[in-house]
Write a structure and sequence with these properties.
Elements lengths: L12 E4 L7 E5 L4 E8 L2 E5 L11 H10 L3 E12 L2 E2 L1 H6 L5 H10 L2 E11 L2 E2 L5 H11 L7 E3 L2 E2 L2 H10 L7 E6 L9 E7 L2 E13 L2 E12 L5 E7 L4 H10 L19 H6 L18 E13 L2 E2 L2 E2 L4 E5 L21 H5 L8
Parallel strand pairs: 1-12, 7-9
Antiparallel strand pairs: 2-10, 2-11, 3-4, 3-5, 5-6, 5-7, 7-8, 11-12, 13-14, 13-16, 14-15, 16-19, 17-18
Amino acid sequence: MDLPVMPPVKPMLAKPAAKIPDGMQYEGKWDGFRAVVFRDGSEVEMGSRTGKPLTRYFPELVEALRTHLPPRCVLDGEIVVRRAGRLDFDSLLERIHPADSRVRHLAATTPASFVAFDLLALEDTALLSTPTDDRRELLTAALHRVDDPVFVAPATRDVELARRWFEQYEGAGLDGVIAKPLTLPYRPGERVMVKVKHERTADCVLAGLREHRSGPVVGSLLLGLYDTRGRLQHVGVCASFTMQRREELMAELAPLRMESVREHPWADWESEDAQAHSRMPGAPSRWTGAKDLGWVPLRPERVCEVAYDHMQGDRFRHTTRFRRWRPDREPEGCTYAQLEEPVSYDLAEVLAAPGGPPD
């Protein structure tokens, strides 16, 4: 492979903002695996956000990229899996499998798509120093004939349209909007774009904790919600605390510690059969290797309010943000019913939106 921009390349990143800024280029924030794609003739490589190779896990995409991309180019985009009219991140996670036979099976049963949203090189020209606006024009011209499963991400300069996308696209599994300054060059690994994500709050049962890797202070709090059958399901964690607060929490929660997990709702957390029927803190697996996922059971008596962006199935998609304790709430009232459901929106409508130069 001999391209003007060579792997590995760390993709350009975004910093969070509370609202969509004016005067930029706007795109949906895709919920998949960020990937930089390199094509030089028959050679195709896909690198992850951290530079790790993704190529072997998506053989069907390799063939599609050979078919649809210009002969020599470097693209930034997202690998996604589509199911039932929306993005399916859980199915995408399953695609990272060590067995080649399983990889081939999943490529046939849950094929992936690639959504391109930036162009880093074309033929013999590196475009890293080219402004966003010009890169977008080159991207849409170079990929104007692409077809499923390769797409060009819709983009616009209309901030009002971007605000509508922010509300509508969540129903298709996207999790916000990305804003790019029009004159911005491509700056690998730097947080120079803006991301605006949905934020909601939920009251959750505090049911356990994990210790911090540095020692006996709180690393993360384990959260639960009751389902319609009255079972406490593990839905996620909150983990962003200062070291001083981690120490304070360990002392504050000491009276809730249980001597044994036997009387806890997640007593069977190490059982594969139990894990198949309920969501509990997981035991080590091929995803986590030898990582210690042991946890400290707490009596499920305390309620906390956390902020989250969106749900993935029956759990929080990302780590939540602790907001406050809720002594006025009873744990039994912390159910899935409180969670706001976004209005459904067909992913096909997103992918069919204009992919040409932004308005």
